[in-house]
Amino acid sequence: MRQRPYRDLSRVDGHSGALRGVSQINLTLSRRLAAALGGAVAALAIAGSASAEVTIQFQFQDRDVARMVSLGGSCSRCELSGRDLTGAAFTGASFLNATLVGANLRGAELVGSNFSGSDFSRADLSGAEMVGANFTGSNFSSANLTGVEAMGASLMRARLASANLTGAELNGANLNGAVLTSASLRGVEANGTTLANVSARSANFNGAELAASNLSNGDFRNVDFRGAILNGARLTGGQFSGANFTDVEFNRTDIRGANLVGARGLSQEQIGRACGDASTRLPSGLTARTCRGVTLRIVPPAPPAPPVPPRSRNFIIASGN
Questions:
Q1: How many other CB atoms are found less than 10 A from the CB of residue 117?
Q2: Which of 271, 275, 273 has its CA nearest to residue 286?
Q3: DSSP secondary structure of 151-205
Q4: DSSP type of residue 70
Q5: How far is the C-alpha of 19 from the C-alpha of 283, rounded, in Å?
Q6: 8 A C-beta contact, residue 164 and residue 145
Q7: Per residue in 109-147, pLDDT tens?
Q8: How far is C-alpha 24 from the geometric centre of its chain's CA atoms?
Q9: CA 38 distance to own-chain centroid
Q10: DSSP symbol at 47
Q11: In the chain, N or C: fewer CB atoms in 10 Å?
Q12: Neighbours of 152 (CB within 10 A)
């Protein structure tokens, strides 16, 4: 898991039990005394006339300050709309039905957490790590998800209309029944991903990697697939009228029962590499072949295990009586 600077949010109103601020301090020897005195003075200033207890622990390391905020535990229906949660870590947390409308979650870590039914509409999650997290039924409408790492995440029935997922890593993710209308998935890595029963009309999959993914029974009308890789993918029963398949790779793609009438950019060379049957509907002049003795099996990659917490942590704790 990559490290990045984090913002201290341990004082978010109303949820102090669920939000835990952690500050790890790595300073060179020449700066330690000044840092300790500065931290003590700051804590006393916050406490005012009341007494304050300050505990400071140091660890001898070469690097400069690295700050981390960990938001754990359980917080159902948390109201975090508009909050600055840049780089926050939600590892293994449970935030069911939380509201994070317009929140800033750039670079946040949501690994293995449960955000089912939560509202991330218009939120900025660019560069966030969402590996193995549960977002079933969540709302990401018009959210910024560029470059997110969501390998093995559950996004079943998630609403992603007009969301920006450019460059996202969705290998092995489950988006069964998701709404992707007008969403941008340019250059996504979605190999072995479940995209069955989705509503993706007018979405952009330009340059996407969709090898061995399941697109069965989905609505992909007017989708831009130019330059995409669909090798071994399953398109059975899908609707692709008006979709653009220019330069798309169709090696062993299962198009049985798919409706490709009105699709653009298709050539006989492409269709000749796919696997169809009598129920495949194609543009005029194109003919699908029947693949015998070939079974297309989609086996999504297993998500990596959640990171192991460090054995020891360094804290700065200030409390007033």
A1: 18
A2: 271
A3: TT-B-TT-B-TT-B-TT-B-TT-B-TT-B-TT-B-TT-B-TT-B-TT-B-TT-B-
A4: E
A5: 56
A6: yes
A7: 999 999 999 999 999 999 999 999 999 999 999 999 999
A8: 26
A9: 38
A10: H
A11: C
A12: 21
Helix (H, G, I), strand (E, B) or coil at 79: strand
CA distance 48 to 27: 28
* pLDDT tens-digit readout, 204-220: 999 999 999 999 999 99
pTM: 0.73
Phi then psi for residue 42, to 5 deg, are -65, -40
Give me the pLDDT at residue 300, please.
53
Cα torsion through 130, 131, 137, 139, rounded to 10: 20
Question: At residue 96, what is the residue type?
Answer: L
Write out the two tokens for 160.
């992603």
d(CA 232, CA 210): 9
* Residue matched to tokens 């009586």: 321
Contact 143, 165 (CB under 8 A): no
In the numeric block, the tokens 């007009």 are attached to 162
- Tell me the three state secondary structure of residue 45: helix
Given 3-state DSSP classes, what are the helix, strand and coil percentages for the chain, each rounded to the nearest 5? 10, 20, 75
Tokens of 254: 């299962």
